[in-house]
Specification:
Layout (H helix, E strand, L loop, with lengths): L2 H15 L1 E3 H8 L3 H13 L4 E3 L2 E3 L15 H12 L7 E4 L3 H9 L6 E5 L2 H7 L5 E5 L3 E2 L6 E2 L1 H7 L4 E7 L2 E3 L3 E4 L2 H12 L1 E7 L11 E4 L4
Parallel strand pairs: 4-5, 4-9, 5-6, 9-12
Antiparallel strand pairs: 1-3, 2-3, 7-8, 10-11, 11-13
Helix pairs in contact: 2-3, 4-5, 5-6
Length: 222
């Protein structure tokens, strides 16, 4: 098997499951552990995966949210700009967390009027810089890594909202499995956000497309 073929198989495994083990790849590819390690190193050097002890993970696999170190920032800014074009004055907007949403909040025009409900303290603080936009933070337990408020109290608050537009990040997004998550509590919050919103835009970088995480949120609908 050629190196390119091996690496494509490795990427498929990681995109499908979010992670893979070196030992599993050795069995799957029928090659030595040194060969697998070399392939993983090349894929990491190319910026396609993250090597960890005993294997590798997808770049979208529950990496800690670090606003000061935004991965693929240019692409995320472009996505945020497109998402902003969906927003009209007077709307009730419901927003998730993550670095794309943070970039979106930074771009909100100062003159925009409306109501923005957020489950992310960081995004809410940024959006609150717009004096004409009413910003409401839905409070609850803050999930480690994503810094999204979750739990029964958040879901209860969400049930009272009727949003015109929901802006939602994605850890996993595929035609077959739909929107998927790495965190159970966050997944339940996202399900409720979808339920109470008239329209939803999923904000995802290209790298997260055709990836599947362990917890299903919702199927894709045309």
């Amino acid at each position: 098997m050629l190196q390119e073929e091996r690496q494509n198989i490795i990427l498929t495994q990681i995109n499908r499951h979010g992670k893979t083990l070196t030992a599993e790849l050795c069995k799957l590819l029928k090659v030595s552990i040194d060969t697998v390690r070399r392939d993983l190193k090349e894929l990491e050097d190319a910026g396609k995966i993250v090597k960890v002890h005993g294997g590798a993970i997808s770049k979208s696999f529950h990496l800690p949210f670090q606003p000061a170190k935004v991965y693929a920032k240019q692409e995320k800014m472009q996505i945020a700009e497109k998402a902003l074009s969906l927003v009209k004055s007077g709307m009730v907007i419901l927003g998730g967390g993550g670095t794309v949403m943070l970039e979106w909040a930074k771009m909100i025009p100062k003159e925009l009027e409306g109501t923005f409900f957020s489950v992310s303290p960081l995004v809410a603080l940024e959006a609150a810089q717009c004096s004409k936009l009413k910003v409401i933070l839905l409070g609850g337990q803050v999930a480690y890594g994503s810094y999204i408020c979750s739990g029964a109290s958040v879901i209860s608050q969400l049930s009272d909202i009727r949003a015109d537009l929901c802006l939602l990040g994605a850890n996993g997004l595929s035609a077959k499995e739909g929107l998927t998550e790495t965190d159970w509590e966050v997944a339940q919050v996202k399900k409720e956000m979808l339920k109470v919103s008239n329209k939803t835009a999923v904000l995802s970088i290209a790298e997260n497309l055709d990836t599947v995480q362990k917890i299903k949120v919702a199927p894709l609908k045309s």
